[in-house]
């Protein structure tokens, strides 16, 4: 079978033959297709709603603020597990407008979820949440052991 | 003139305050238009709706100051909201009503009686 293999001129031997080229094309296809499919499946990046989240910390509390306009209180869920704060909810589309002609539809309807790792231990039984003017504010009092302590040092 | 409600103009460049355009939904029903704008953090007091001819400007001022202590993460913006809409001349501007609920402004823009479709009965 040796005679059927195309003869390469020595100076062109570095040129990739067709087999290799096909491999390369498949590799590129994989690069473009696989991550996109994965993104669409696992993340909300392309289709979801990611409300803006702020987090502040002072001496006594960690405060998390989320911009979620137009929700109902009962459609918001706040949970705490393993030092992570999860806020999820759903904005429901009002059906009465279905017959109307839509001119602009920029608002997102559907579910959202944000999870954030808390910087310190908190007292989970004293967490408070308030929903006002479309902004959810969760106040998490720090656990006693996480608060800064002042220790007087006597130098003799 | 149906499409005129969609037209919008950019906020003037020289304004000292930073504005962002709120996300809106606009519907047309038989009676008029409904406009919903997302303005988290804006209260009734922070709203300014002005009409000039067929141009309606909605401004939602808010003071979304940084929270207490140190900022660990900040995704929200300080900017207030502003957006300008060109109104359909069929809208009865005297009867425009507005309400704000949990950061969503809902404007009801009814059409004037004479442009509403109606049936004329034949005697």
Topology, please?
The complex is a heterodimer of chains A (156) and B (123).
Chain A lengths: L17 H25 L10 E5 L3 E7 L8 E6 L2 E8 L9 E5 L4 E8 L10 E5 L2 E7 L15
Antiparallel strand pairs in A: 1-2, 2-8, 3-4, 4-6, 7-8
Chain B lengths: L7 E2 L9 E2 L3 E5 L3 E7 L8 E6 L2 E6 L9 E5 L5 E7 L10 E5 L2 E7 L13
Parallel strand pairs in B: 2-8
Antiparallel strand pairs in B: 1-8, 3-4, 4-10, 5-6, 6-8, 9-10
Largest interface: A-B, 35 and 35 residues
| Backbone structural class of chain B | mainly beta
Largest sheet of chain A: 4 strands, antiparallel
Secondary structure tally: strands of chain A: 8
First-to-last CA distance of chain B? 33 Å
| Helical fraction of chain B | under 10%
Structural class of chain A: alpha+beta
Query: What global shape of chain A is seen?
Result: flat
Name the strands of the widest sheet of chain A in spatial order: 1-2-8-7
Which range does the strand content of chain A fall in? Answer: 25-35%
Oligomer: heterodimer
Low-confidence stretches of chain A: 11-19, 39-46
Which tags fit this structure?
heterodimer, A: about 160 residues, alpha+beta, Immunoglobulin-like, 2 domains, three-stranded antiparallel β-sheet, B: about 120 residues, mainly beta, five-stranded mixed β-sheet, 10 strands
């Amino acid at each position: 079978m040796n005679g059927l293999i195309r003869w390469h001129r020595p100076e062109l031997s570095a040129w990739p033959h067709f087999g290799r080229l096909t491999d390369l094309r498949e590799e590129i296809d994989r690069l473009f297709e696989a991550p996109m499919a994965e993104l669409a499946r696992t993340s909300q990046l392309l289709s979801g709603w990611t409300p803006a989240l702020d987090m502040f910390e002072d001496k006594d509390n960690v405060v998390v603020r989320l911009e979620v306009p137009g929700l109902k209180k009962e459609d918001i869920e706040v949970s705490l597990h393993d030092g992570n704060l999860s806020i999820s909810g759903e904005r429901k589309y009002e059906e009465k407008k279905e017959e109307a002609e839509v001119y602009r539809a920029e608002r997102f309807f559907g579910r959202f979820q944000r999870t954030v790792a808390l910087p310190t231990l908190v007292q989970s039984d004293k967490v408070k949440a308030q929903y006002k003017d479309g902004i959810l504010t969760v106040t998490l009092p720090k656990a006693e052991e996480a608060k800064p302590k002042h220790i007087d040092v006597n130098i003799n | 003139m149906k499409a005129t409600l969609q037209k919008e103009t950019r906020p003037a460049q020289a304004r000292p305050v930073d504005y962002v355009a709120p996300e809106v939904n606009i519907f047309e029903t038989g009676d008029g238009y409904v406009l919903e704008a997302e303005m988290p953090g804006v209260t009734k007091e922070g709203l300014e709706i002005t009409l000039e001819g067929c141009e309606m400007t909605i401004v939602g001022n808010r003071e979304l100051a940084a929270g207490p202590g140190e900022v660990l993460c900040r995704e929200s913006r300080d900017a207030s909201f502003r957006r300008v809409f060109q109104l359909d001349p069929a809208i009865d501007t005297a009867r425009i009503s507005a309400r704000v609920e949990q950061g969503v402004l809902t404007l009801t823009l009814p059409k004037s009686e004479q442009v509403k479709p109606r049936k004329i009965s034949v005697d």
